[in-house]
Write a structure and sequence with these properties.
The structure holds two protein chains of two kinds. Chain A is an alpha+beta fold. Chain A is built from four helices and seven strands, in the order αβααββββββα. Chain A starts with a helix and ends with a helix. In chain B, a hairpin with a 6-residue loop joins strand 10 and strand 11. The chains are: A alpha+beta, B alpha+beta.
Chain lengths: 135, 670
C-alpha cells in the first residue's frame, strides 16, 4: 500500500500541468515561459491564419491570437499569439472557447501536437465530448 | 401536456416520500398493511415515471417546441430515431431517465423478492425511494424537463448536437445508465441486510444477477462510449482518461472486484465487511459518475459548462457516504468471519490481490480525476492531470491483474504446495514464456509490451487448460464427442465457464489496448487529385471529391483508393459534414478494420483555392481485438446470467426454503 501511494504521488507530479487563463499568465509572461501548461481563452475573431509553403499551398501551420475574455465582451483582456501545427478540431474557429496544451515561448504560445481543445461559440451542451477530440 | 408532466413529477415525489416513510414505519411497527401500502406506492412510482416518460417522448415525436427541453435538443428535420433518443440527450432528461430506470428496476426487484425476503423488502423500498426522491427533487426544484417557454414558442428547435447524432451515442447513455442504476438494487439489499442484521450471504445470492446485470451494462456502456469516441471524434483513439470516461470506468472496476470477492464469501464465508463496502463504493461511484458528467464540477477543463447542480449532488453524496459508513460500522461486530486465510498460495489470496488491484486502479483513477478540484480548493492553483499519469499508474496494475487472471482459476482453494503449483501451471507458463520469446524474436523490445503479451498468453493458457480439462473429463466419463462435451460443459457450469469466456474477452481486449497504444502510426498529408501517399504497407490515392446536400446537412466526401502489395483492396470515403441546425461542422471517419490493423482516415480539410485536400491517416494494429474482446465479454456475461437449475438449488439451500425454486425473474432478481 505504501509503495502504491508513493508511486501515485510521484507519477502525479509528472502527470500534472498548470491550467491557466490568459490573464493569469501574460502579466508575468517571463515567469511562465517554458512551463508546460494548459491555457484557457477565446480565439480573437479573424485572427486565425495558415501559412503557405514555398509553392503557395496552404499548410497545417496555424497562427492565431487568444484573448482572456469571450469575444463579444466589452474588454478582451490580455491577448497572446499562439501557433499550432496539425489538424484542428471542427469546433476551432473565430470566437471559440479554447484550451491549448503547450508552452509559452518568447514568440508566443507554442501548442503541442493535438493540443487544441475547442468549444464552438454557440451554446450547445455536450461540447464536453468535442473537447475530447483534442486530447 | 407539459403541465401534466410537471404535475406527474410532483405527484411522483409525494408518492415516493410515502413509500419510504410507510415501509420503514411498517417494518418498525410490524404492520404488514403499512408495508404493503409502501410497496404499492413504490410500484406506483414506476407507473407514474413511465407515464411522464411517455409524455416526454411524445413531446419529442410531435415536435412540441413549447417545452424548452424539446426545443433545445430536437428540431423538425431531425430523423425520428434521434428524436426518440433526444429524451436522454441533455441534463434534465437524463435525470428523468435515471429515475424512470430506477423505479422500474426497483419495482422488478421488489416484486420478485417480496415473499422471499419479507424482512429486507421495506428497507429496500426505503433505500431506493430515497435515491429517487433526491433526483425527483432536483428535477422539480431546479431542472424540470417540462419547463415551457414563457414568451413565444419557437417555430423550430435547435437540434441535437451532431456529435451525438450517431447510433453509438444513441445506445451508449442508456447502457451506461442501466449499469449505473441497476447497481442500486444490490446496494439497497445490502442496506436492508445491514439494518435487519440478516448478514449471511442471502442478500448477495439474491442480487447476484442484478450485480452481473449492472456489470454487463457498465461493460457495454464503456465499450460503446469508446467505440463512439473512435468513430466520431476523429483523433484515432478511443480513450483519453477524460473525467467523463473515468466516471463510467470507476464503477465498472469496483463492480468487477465485487463480483469476484462475493465468490469468496459464498465459498468461505469470509470478506463480509469488504463485500458490503465494495457494493457501497460501487453505488456511490455511480452517483459520483452521474454527478461528474452532469454537474460541471470537473468541467473547468473538459466541458466548460456549469449547471449549478454540483452542490446538491455533493451534499447528497456526502450524506449517502456518511449514512452507509455509519450503518456498516455499527454492524461490524455482527460481521465477524470465523474463517481466516491459510496461505498466500491459495485462490482466496489470488482473489484478494485481484480485489486490491482493481480497487487500486479505481482509486488511482478517482484521485487523478478529482485532484484538479482538490488542488484548486486547497492550494488555489488550477492544474490538470493528463493521460500520462493514468497510463503510468494503471499500466503496471493492469499487468498484475492479467497475471492474477492466469493464476486464479487454476490455483486451489485454501492452500497449495509449490510442487502441485508447478505441475498445474506448467502448460500456461510455457505458453506465456513461449509467447514472450516469439515476440522478442519478432524484434519487439519494449519491456512493457513483452511482459504484457507474455502475461496475456499465460492467462489465455489457463483458460485453455481449464476448458481442455473439463472437456476431456466429460469425454471419458460420459463418452461425448469433443464438440458435444464442450457445449454441455459450458451449459452445465455456466457460471464458471461463462466467467472464463469473459476472461478470454478481457485478454483479447487487453492485447488490443496494448498494441494500439504502443504501435499506432500517423501520417498527415495534403494532396491533389490523383496524388498518392503511403502509410505502413498501404498506398492511398486521392481520387476526387463529391458533395451532397440534404435538408439536414451538407456532405463533402473524398474518394480514396487503397492499395496494398500492388492490389487495390478498398475504396474509402471519409467526409466532412456540415449540419444545418445547429450550424456545426463534423467529421465522418472512414475505417477499414481487419484483425491485423485498422486503417483510419480523416478528411481534415479542403482548400477551395488550391484544391488540396488534407488527410490524417492512422494505422492502428490489433485494435480490432479490443472490440472483439468486448463482444466476447458480453457473450460470456449472458452465459453467466443464464438460468441454471443447480444454482437455484444452492439458493434454496442457502435460504433454507423450497419456495426459492419458484419463478425465475428476467433479467435479475435471483
Amino acid at each position: 500500500v505504501l509503495a502504491f501511494t508513493g508511486m501515485l504521488w510521484s507519477t502525479l507530479r509528472e502527470g500534472t500541468e498548470y491550467y491557466k487563463n490568459v490573464d493569469e499568465v501574460m502579466p508575468q509572461a517571463q515567469q511562465w515561459t517554458g512551463k508546460q501548461m494548459q491555457l484557457h481563452g477565446y480565439v480573437v475573431p479573424k485572427s486565425i491564419m495558415r501559412r503557405r509553403d514555398a509553392s503557395g499551398n496552404i499548410t497545417l501551420d496555424y497562427i492565431f491570437k487568444v484573448q482572456n475574455n469571450p469575444a463579444r465582451s466589452s474588454e478582451p483582456g490580455n491577448v497572446v499569439d499562439a501557433s499550432y501545427n496539425g489538424i484542428v478540431p471542427d469546433t476551432f474557429k473565430d470566437e471559440a472557447e479554447v484550451v491549448l496544451k503547450g508552452k509559452l515561448t518568447p514568440d508566443g504560445f507554442k501548442t503541442d501536437p493535438n493540443g487544441v481543445m475547442a468549444k464552438c461559440p454557440s451554446k450547445y451542451e455536450a461540447a464536453e465530448k468535442s473537447a475530447l477530440a483534442g486530447t | 401536456m407539459a403541465s401534466l408532466g410537471s404535475a406527474l413529477l410532483l405527484a411522483t415525489f409525494v408518492v415516493c416520500s410515502y413509500a419510504a416513510v410507510a415501509s420503514v414505519a411498517g417494518a418498525r411497527r410490524h404492520s404488514r398493511r403499512l408495508i404493503e401500502s409502501g410497496i404499492g406506492a413504490f410500484y406506483l412510482v414506476a407507473a407514474l415515471m413511465t407515464a411522464a416518460s411517455a409524455i416526454m417522448i411524445n413531446a419529442f415525436l410531435t415536435d412540441d417546441f413549447s417545452i424548452k427541453y424539446v426545443a433545445h435538443y430536437s428540431d423538425t428535420v431531425q430523423p425520428l430515431f434521434y428524436k426518440f433518443t433526444s429524451y436522454w440527450g441533455g441534463l434534465d432528461g437524463s435525470i428523468m431517465f435515471w429515475v424512470f430506470l430506477l423505479s422500474v428496476f426497483g419495482s422488478c426487484a421488489v416484486w420478485v423478492n417480496r415473499e422471499r425476503h419479507r424482512e429486507l423488502i421495506p428497507y429496500v423500498v426505503a433505500t431506493i425511494s430515497t435515491v429517487e426522491m433526491f433526483f425527483l427533487y432536483l428535477m422539480i426544484a431546479h431542472k424540470n424537463p417540462f419547463t415551457t417557454s414563457l414568451t413565444t414558442v419557437p417555430a423550430d428547435g435547435q437540434g441535437l448536437n451532431p456529435l451525438l447524432q450517431n447510433y453509438w451515442m444513441a445506445i451508449h447513455p442508456p447502457s451506461l445508465y442501466t449499469g449505473y442504476v441497476s447497481a442500486a438494487v444490490p446496494f439497497a439489499f445490502a442496506c436492508g441486510a445491514l439494518v435487519t442484521r440478516k448478514l449471511d450471504d442471502g442478500w448477495i445470492r439474491t442480487t447476484r444477477r442484478w450485480a452481473i446485470f449492472s456489470w454487463f451494462f457498465l461493460t457495454l456502456g464503456n465499450l460503446f462510449g469508446a467505440r463512439w469516441a473512435y468513430e466520431v471524434l476523429g483523433w484515432g483513439g478511443y480513450w483519453a482518461w477524460d473525467p467523463v470516461e473515468n466516471a463510467a470506468f470507476m464503477p465498472w472496476l469496483v463492480m468487477t472486484a465485487y463480483l469476484h470477492s462475493v465468490m469468496i464469501q459464498e465459498r468461505k464465508d469470509m470478506l463480509k465487511v469488504w463485500n458490503l463496502a465494495l457494493i457501497g463504493m460501487a453505488f456511490m461511484l455511480t452517483l459520483f459518475g452521474t454527478f461528474l458528467t452532469r454537474s460541471g464540477v470537473i468541467s473547468s477543463v473538459h466541458s466548460f459548462t456549469q449547471s449549478g447542480l454540483g452542490p446538491y449532488f455533493l451534499t447528497f453524496l456526502i450524506v449517502v457516504v456518511a449514512a452507509y459508513t455509519a450503518l456498516l460500522t455499527s454492524r461490524v461486530r455482527d460481521l465477524k468471519s470465523p474463517a481466516e486465510f491459510e496461505s498466500y498460495l491459495s485462490r482466496e489470496a489470488a482473489f484478494l490481490f485481484n480485489n486490491l488491484m482493481l480497487v487500486g486502479i479505481a482509486f488511482a483513477v478517482f484521485w487523478g480525476t478529482v485532484f484538479p478540484v482538490i488542488s484548486e480548493a486547497v492550494r488555489g492553483v488550477k492544474i490538470t492531470v493528463g493521460p500520462p499519469f493514468f497510463d503510468k499508474v494503471n499500466g503496471p496494475l493492469a499487468l498484475g491483474l492479467v497475471f492474477l487472471m492466469g493464476v486464479g482459476p487454476l490455483i486451489a482453494w485454501r492452500r497449495t504446495s509449490p510442487q502441485t503449483l508447478m505441475r498445474t501451471f506448467l502448460a500456461p507458463l510455457t505458453m506465456g514464456v513461449g509467447a514472450g520469446v516469439v515476440v522478442f524474436a519478432m524484434g519487439l523490445r519494449q519491456w512493457y509490451v513483452l511482459t504484457a503479451l507474455s502475461l496475456a498468453a499465460f492467462a489465455l493458457g489457463t483458460v485453455v487448460v481449464e476448458f481442455r480439462r473439463g472437456v476431456s473429463a466429460r469425454r471419458h466419463l460420459v463418452h461425448e464427442t469433443p464438440a458435444r462435451a464442450l457445449v454441455n460443459l459450458v451449459s452445465k457450469n455456466n457460471r464458471r465457464y461463462g466467467g472464463y469466456i469473459i476472461h478470454l474477452g478481457v485478454v483479447f481486449a487487453f492485447i488490443g489496448i496494448v498494441a494500439s497504444s504502443f504501435f499506432r502510426t500517423e501520417v498527415k498529408r495534403s494532396v491533389r487529385e490523383g496524388q498518392t501517399f503511403s502509410i505502413g504497407a498501404y498506398e492511398i490515392t486521392f481520387l476526387g471529391l463529391k458533395g451532397v446536400e440534404t435538408a439536414h446537412l451538407e456532405d463533402l466526401s473524398a474518394r480514396l483508393a487503397v492499395r496494398s502489395g500492388g492490389r487495390e483492396i478498398a475504396t474509402m470515403e471519409p467526409a466532412r459534414l456540415f449540419y444545418k441546425r445547429p450550424q456545426q461542422p463534423a467529421t465522418r471517419v472512414a475505417i477499414r478494420s481487419t484483425p491485423l490493423a485498422d486503417l483510419y482516415v480523416v478528411l481534415a480539410g479542403v482548400d477551395d483555392q488550391s484544391g488540396l485536400a488534407t488527410f490524417e491517416v492512422f494505422l492502428t494494429p490489433l485494435v480490432f481485438w479490443l472490440w472483439a474482446g468486448g463482444l466476447m465479454m458480453a457473450i460470456g456475461t449472458v452465459v453467466v446470467m443464464w438460468p441454471n437449475v443447480r444454482e437455484r438449488a444452492a439458493m434454496a439451500a442457502a435460504l433454507g426454503r423450497d419456495e426459492a425454486l419458484g419463478a425465475e425473474p428476467v433479467p435479475g432478481g435471483d
